[in-house]
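Sequence in, structure out.
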Amino acid sequence: MQSRLPPPVPPQAPSQAKTAKQPWRGGRLPQSEVERRIAHLLEVAGREFAARGFGGTNLDRLVALSGVSKTTILRRFGSKEGLFNTLIDQTMVAIRARLAAVRFDVEHPRRTIEQFIDAYIETAIGNPLGHMLLGVAILERTASPHLSRMILDQAREGLRPIADFIARLMERGILCRADPMEVALDLQGLMTQGFRVFVENPAFLTRPGRSGEIARRFLKGWS
C-alpha cells in the first residue's frame, strides 16, 4: 500500500524579522551600539571623576571599567581632558535647565530665593558630579588652572538667572544696588559655606528649613 505522507515543504529564506534579531557577529559596530557604549563610558567616567577628581582619574582604569578601548576614547574625545570637558558640558546643561525652571516672582522675593536655593543644592552641590566640579575648581586649581577657570565661568552662567532676578529686585529698591553677579556669588557662598561643603557630611546642605535661613540672611544683608 502506498504511503500518503504530505509532500515535503521546501525550505524558506529566513524572514527579515528573524534576521534582525541575530546578534552582531563582527566587523564594524552599528552606530546605535557605538552610541550605547559611549553613553556607558560617560556614566562610568562620571562616577570615577566624582569619586577621584580629575587628577586622580586614570584613563586605563576607565578602559577596564567601561569596556571601551583607549583608541575609541581618544578618537572620540581627544584626551582624558576632552572626556572631562564633555561631562562638564552635560552636567552644566542639566544644572542650568533646572535653575532656569525656577519661577522668578518679584512679588515674592524670599520664596523665589528659597526655591532657587533648593534647586541649586539639588543639582549643583548635592549632585555628585556638581560637587566634583566644585572640588576640582578649588582643590585642583594649581595643577589645572585652566579647568578651574572654565568651571568658574560655567558656574557664573548657572547663576545668571538669579543674578538677573537680583537686578530686578535692585530696580524695585528691595535690594541695595551693586553688581548683580557679585551678589549672586555672595548667595552661592552662603549655600556652600566655603570649604565646609568638602569636610563635613553634606547632609547639612538639605537640613529642613536651611533654604529659608539662607534666604533670610541674604535678604537681610542686602536690603
